[in-house]
Amino acid sequence: MSICLFNIRVDDISQEKLEQKLYDWIVGQTQRMIVTPNPEFLLAAKKDKNFADILNQADLSLPDGIGLRFAACALTEETLKYRHTGVDTLDLLASICEKTNKCLFLLGGYGNSAQKTGQYFQKKYPDLRVVSVNPGKINQNLPVELMEKINQSGATVLAVGFGQKKQEFFLKEYLPLFDQIKIAIGVGGAFEMLSGTLPRAPLWMRQNGLEWLWRLLIEPRRFPRIIRATIIFPIFVILSTIKQKRFWKACVRVGKEFIIKN
């Protein structure tokens, strides 16, 4: 099932179906692109039609962010039952790569976080083949040596950690050049979390959608981004419910969802 939020498609898929879909795609012949929209993505897409088009054209759009769950209740008659973070989805892809004897390519991240993430995965999945590269800043053109390294790696899955928008535009432009890649995904700051460069939120915070608070505590510089996700986005949602003449109905639906899930 898919839900449309601010003209962006978001796919609601169970963990079991997601795992089966990723398995089928990895052993398949068609290139697939996965995006993981959160409230910041939707705000950015409202201002950038090209970015919105990339999100909507992706083969899979996995909701990453508690705000989307409540926005779905407020703005539609549906509910988002499932949420898949970039960190968890990347871990799942690494697991499937090991089971299917496929290679995983990690591209980007800050410092040596990609390399450390590769080491983490190799400890967790001993038979996994993984290549990790931080290319530094990429301007308009993809360096030939980087394209050759990706193509010569034999990788089937490409995870890009360039940050919001940049990673999606990169994949949209360059994925067709990587013949052997079957699944490509933008993972934001997943490398920093998996590598231990930044500590991941405690389980109870992740289960209650409080990753944003944890990131604010460990990275105060993210304050402007947190404001967009936790204040500006909800304001847009509230204004939309008023425009749709469903403000009180939205309050009831969101309240019920909060009680049920928590």
TrEMBL record:
Pfam families: Glyco_tran_WecG. Keywords: Glycosyltransferase, Membrane, Transferase, Transmembrane, Transmembrane helix. The chain crosses the membrane at residues 226-242. It comes from the Bacteria. Signal peptide: none annotated. The keyword Transmembrane helix applies. InterPro entries: WecG_TagA_CpsF. One of its GO terms (molecular function) is hexosyltransferase activity. PANTHER family: PTHR34136, UDP-N-ACETYL-D-MANNOSAMINURONIC ACID TRANSFERASE. This is Glycosyltransferase. It comes from Candidatus Uhrbacteria bacterium CG_4_9_14_3_um_filter_36_7.
